[in-house]
Amino acid sequence: MAWFRRNEEPRPAPAPTGDLTDTAREDTPEALDADIDGAVELVNASAGELPVAAVVAARRVTDLLAEIVRTSELRPLDVYAAISVRATATDYLPTTVRTFVALDPDLVDVPQASGTTPTRSLLEQLASLEGASEQVLEATRRQDVDALMTQGSFLRTKFSGSDLDL
User: Fold this and answer.
1) Do 118 and 162 contact (CB within 8 A), yes or no?
2) What is residue 162's predicted lDDT score, i.e. its pLDDT?
3) Which residues, including other chains, have CB under 8 Å from residue 130's CB and lie 6 or more apart?
């Protein structure tokens, strides 16, 4: 039993696994920008197979994602915003585009059992991604406003006379 060995030096804690470093690296603005660039490249490469409105909508999504990342120039990006940007750029948007591009071109304007066409469904999915990205951007901006208001309260308290002063 180890607790009976007084002269034995404690063992060092195991080094963190590569996963932790990789995860931290994924949250950097540079890594997120690279993810967004990959999504832009996919949209641009698929532009000939997508409706023009879908290309425009997809690029609006990538522009919003880039704007979210740019907020990190003022303060560190919130972990939830980083996760949202990464997931949208590497999963949600690419999956939406690739799924549509994989369809037989003769079927993209044929109403399905739901009554909607694949083209309409694509545009609705892109609108959902755009709306979600706008919400993340708005939440990020609200945090900046909250930080400013908190700083203002701190400064008022710090540099104004205290209620306890006689």
Assistant:
1) no
2) 58
3) 57, 60, 61, 64
- For residue 25, the model assigns a pLDDT of 63
C-alpha–C-alpha distance, residues 24 and 79, integer Å: 10
Short-list 39, 44, 45, CA closest to 89: 39
Q: Tell me how far the alpha carbon of residue 140 is from its chain's centroid.
A: 11
Nearest to 104 by CA among 119, 88, 89: 119
Please compute, for residue 27, the number of CA atoms within 13 A of its CA located in the half-sphere on the CB side. 13
32/90 Cα distance (integer angstroms): 10
Per-residue pLDDT tens for 28-46? Answer: 999 999 999 999 999 999 9
- Do 67 and 133 form a contact (C-beta atoms < 8 A)? no
Residue pair 55/43 in contact by the 8 Å Cβ criterion: yes
How high is the pLDDT of residue 142? 84
Report the run of H or E that residue 109 belongs to, with start and end: none
- Domains of the chain, each with CATH number or no CATH: 23-103+115-147 (1.20.120)
Residues of the chain below pLDDT 50: 1, 10-21, 166
What is residue 27's predicted lDDT score, i.e. its pLDDT? 85
